[in-house]
Amino acid sequence: MLVMMCGWQTTEEIGDPGNTCTWKQTPKNSGPSAFAAFATNPQLAEKIKINFALAPIATAKYVTSVLRFTCYIDPQLFKMANKGTCQAYDWGSPSLNILHHNQLTPPLYHVEDVRVPTAMWSGGRDILVDPIDIKNLEPRVSNLIYHKKIPSYNHLDFMLGLDVYDQIDTEIIMMMNEAQ
Questions:
Q1: What are phi and psi of 62, to 5 degrees?
Q2: Who's near 16: CB < 8 A, 6+ residues apart?
Q3: Where are the strands (E) in the chain, listed by range?
Q4: Closest-CA residue to 55 (of 143, 162, 150)
Q5: 87-106: pLDDT as tens digits
Q6: 116-172 confidence digits (pLDDT tens)
Q7: Which PANTHER family match (predicted)?
């Protein structure tokens, strides 16, 4: 299984004066934090050649999984998920938000500000990243270079699917080769 996003760094940036390039990997489950980081940290975004977003999530307003109701979820996270916004953690009071964010309410992460080329793969049977959330996210990704919807995929298929190599990995490898 490849990863959600790969960064492009020259070996010069990692201490080798050469000009060759390498791909760096980050964990697959970094969806919302990847969009938040790229929207707020231009220096990080400049180092990312392509964001490979597998079952990407920026909001969770339409999650249908019973896990949403059976697992403990911090009340503030649950409130944020129901709002359908991509934002920093809401500390629950204006005074705590001022302490942590220097403003009364948590700042929004503007997915539209992400300039990193993004390739997305989403599943039609994903109960954690609902197709409606994907439909709402897609037009907000300003540099969307590819989006493949796999109707039969649920959330775990992106890691455990028997055909993940054919459905996703070969395309990621091809994009990485083309980007070099």
A1: -110, 20
A2: none
A3: 6-10, 21-25, 51-54, 118-123, 144-150
A4: 150
A5: 777 888 899 989 998 999 88
A6: 999 999 999 988 788 888 888 899 899 999 999 999 999 889 889 999 999 999 999
A7: LYSOSOMAL ACID LIPASE-RELATED
- 145: which residues sit within 8 A by CB, 6+ positions away? 50, 117, 118, 119
Domains of the chain, CATH where assigned = 6-14+21-179 (3.40.50.1820)
3-state SS class at 33: helix
Q: Which one-letter DSSP state was computed for residue 106?
A: P
Residue 62 confidence (pLDDT) above 80:
no
Quote the tokens at residue 124. Answer: 């039609």
Question: Tell me, what DSSP letter sits at residue 15?
Answer: T
Please provide residue 122's backbone torsions phi and psi, each rounded to the nearest 5 degrees. Answer: -135, 155
Please state, rounded to an integer, the average pLDDT across all residues of the chain. Answer: 76
Kindly state the tokens that stand for 48: 């990312």
| Confidence tier at 70 by pLDDT (50, 70, 90) | low
Dist. CA 89–CA 176, nearest whole Å = 33
CA 163 – CA 170 distance, rounded (Å): 11
